TrEMBL record:
InterPro entries: TrmO-like_N (IPR023370), UPF0066_cons_site (IPR023368), YaeB-like (IPR040372), YaeB-like_sf (IPR036413), YaeB_N_sf (IPR036414). GO terms for biological process: methylation. The keyword S-adenosyl-L-methionine applies. Belongs to the tRNA methyltransferase O family. It comes from the Archaea. It holds the Pfam family TrmO_N. NCBIfam families: tRNA_TsaA. Residues 3-132 form the TsaA-like domain. This is tRNA-Thr(GGU) m(6)t(6)A37 methyltransferase TsaA. GO terms for molecular function: methyltransferase activity. It comes from Methanocorpusculum parvum.
């Protein structure tokens, strides 16, 4: 299996403590710089679009399989696959963001909880009729 980043996040969140639990809890803008070789993949993206951003949470722990979820459930330990905790065997994040601008290879987005310099794996459109 090979997975390569298509870009990198530039965000105001330097540490895990700086970042919100979920992207919905921030209005701070982040920028996603897409690498030149993926330029053509940006065609069709516009300000106002909602997209899913998949990142590789490279600073997350990968050997934890049970956690206490924040804000959901009964406070008991649960398996990571039943939570949105960043700790998991493959620390892939999925965040729904709104694009506020597209400027060449840079997407400015609202609602991303990723730390600064987090690798971006993919961007996928949100379709209200099939994603909600």
């Amino acid at each position: 299996m090979e997975c390569v980043p298509i870009g990198i996040v530039h965000s105001p969140f330097e540490t895990k403590e700086d970042a919100p639990r979920q992207g919905i809890f921030t209005d701070k803008p982040s920028r996603i710089t897409i690498y030149e070789k993926y330029r053509d993949g940006l065609s069709g993206l516009c300000a106002g679009d909602k997209v899913f951003v998949l990142c590789w949470f490279d600073r997350a722990e990968r050997d934890i399989l049970k956690v206490k979820p924040h804000g959901h459930g009964d406070g008991k330990m649960r398996g990571v696959f039943s939570t949105r905790a960043p700790v998991r065997p493959n620390p892939i994040s999925l965040t729904l963001v709104t694009i506020t601008s597209v400027n060449d290879l840079v997407l400015t987005v609202k609602g991303l909880e990723a730390l600064d310099n987090t690798p971006v794996l993919d961007i996928k459109p949100y379709y209200g009729d099939i994603d909600s």
